[in-house]
Design goal:
This protein folds into two domains: 161 residues, 3-Layer(bba) Sandwich (FAD/NAD(P)-binding domain), CATH 3.50.50; 149 residues, D-Amino Acid Oxidase, subunit A, domain 2 (D-Amino Acid Oxidase, Chain A, domain 2, 2-Layer Sandwich), CATH 3.30.9.10. Helix content is 28%, strand content 27%. It has eight helices and 19 strands. Strands 5-6-4-14-15-16-13-17 form an eight-stranded mixed β-sheet, sandwiched between helices. The chain has a six-stranded mixed β-sheet with strand order 8-2-1-12-19-18, with helices on one face. Strand 18 and strand 19 form a beta hairpin. Helix 1 runs parallel beside helix 5, helix 1 runs parallel beside helix 7 and helix 2 crosses helix 7. The chain is globular and about 65 Å long. The mean pLDDT is 94.
């Protein structure tokens, strides 16, 4: 056993953030991933950092985690080797009909009871802020929400990790146990502690995660405005169309992400015609001008879900920690996840909202 080394299994946004922050604290770190940066769900993420507009009564712990991680994001981004295009324009959650408006009123009351900043908008006020939006009843403006370019973020995280001394082993891990990570070629990365941050594949690496982490497929589109078309929105737009959630996330290089479908079909990563149709139809209801945009890319990947929408952050067994099951919030929760895992590795106390994400909450189900 390498008595000092930390092995992080997973080279997506969570694994890279954990590895970078652990190395900054002086720990020798190895990341194990056959395709770090571009091989996982993080690469196709839209980059929304929007815990408030995803909040709902009954998921207070999810909101608390997201809000705390959002608070850390500006400093986290500033410490990276290169800027990840952190945008601060905020989010508008749109109400397309009367039922949506009623739901938004309940959400606004809930958020106000928690002291979260939101502002109700009429349909006219929405279009004053975002002229390309179609016919809507109104919306909620959340000025504190952020977004980030996932491609720039992942590249910068790897660069930052390497500058801090992190080593990379580009092989597939097949199991994790106290003292090491077993690789597909039969060799072992020896370590004092192993951190499982392998997203939807985490459950295959350790028996304590069996039944606690499952894959959730999501399809996402990348559009670009063409000459003569209306420009993309300046803020993230969210809506529900026929009960389907849709979001549009602009980036500074002109890309507009439209996402995302959600289905539990195992590790299937095929893009379906129906998924593309629904996303385009729903996005056009929100922003009619996109019918003239270029469809630059359609991708699908699987995210790691949990039973209660909270991630799994904490110790599984001696020598093995989990940093997984972030579902659609991996990018948002990266700063808080990294700080939590480093705190555990250093033996520091954790805040109550982080303790709520401990794998121990499932008790005998593990």
């Amino acid at each position: 056993m390498d008595e000092q080394r930390i092995a992080v299994v997973g080279g997506g946004v969570v694994g890279l953030a954990v590895a970078w922050q652990a190395a900054v604290e002086g720990m020798p770190v190895t990341v194990v991933d056959p395709e770090p940066v571009s091989g996982g769900a993080s690469w196709v993420a839209a980059g929304m950092l929007a815990p408030v507009t995803e909040a709902w009564p009954g998921e207070e712990h999810v909101l608390a985690l997201g809000a705390e991680s959002l608070r850390r994001w500006p400093a986290f981004a500033a410490d990276l080797a290169t800027p990840p295009d952190l945008r601060t324009e905020g989010t508008i959650a749109l109400a397309l009909d009367a039922a949506d408006a009623a739901d938004q009123a309940r959400l606004a009351d809930f958020l106000a009871s928690l002291g979260r900043e939101v502002r109700g908008l009429s349909g006219r006020e929405v279009r004053e802020l975002e002229p390309g939006v179609g016919a809507v009843r109104g919306g909620l403006l959340v000025p504190g929400d952020l977004s980030v370019d996932s491609h720039l973020l992942l590249r910068s995280l790897r660069e930052s990790a390497e500058l801090a001394g992190v080593e990379f082993v580009t092989q597939r891990a097949v199991s994790v146990e106290d003292g090491g990570v077993t690789l597909a070629d039969g060799s072992t990365v020896e370590c004092r502690e192993a951190v499982i941050a392998a997203g939807a594949w985490s459950a295959e690496l350790h028996p304590a995660l069996a039944g606690l982490v499952h894959p959730v497929k999501g399809e996402i589109l990348t559009l670009r405005a063409r000459p003569g078309t209306l420009p993309p929105p300046t803020r993230t737009l969210r809506a529900r169309v026929e009960s389907r959630p849709v979001y549009l996330v602009p980036h500074s290089d002109g890309r507009l992400h439209v996402g995302a479908t959600q289905s539990e079909v195992g590790h299937d990563t095929d893009v379906t015609a129906g998924g593309v149709r629904d996303l385009l139809d729903d996005a056009e209801r929100v922003l009619p001008g996109i019918r003239e945009y270029t469809l630059a890319e359609a991708t699908a990947h699987v995210r790691a879900g949990s039973r209660d929408n909270l991630p799994l952050l904490g110790r599984l067994t001696p020598g093995v920690l989990a940093a997984t099951a972030h579902h659609r919030n991996g990018v948002l929760l990266a700063p808080l996840t990294a700080a939590t895992i480093v705190a555990i590795l250093r033996g520091r106390s954790l805040d109550d909202h982080v303790v709520a994400a401990s794998p121990d909450r499932f008790g005998d189900a593990r």
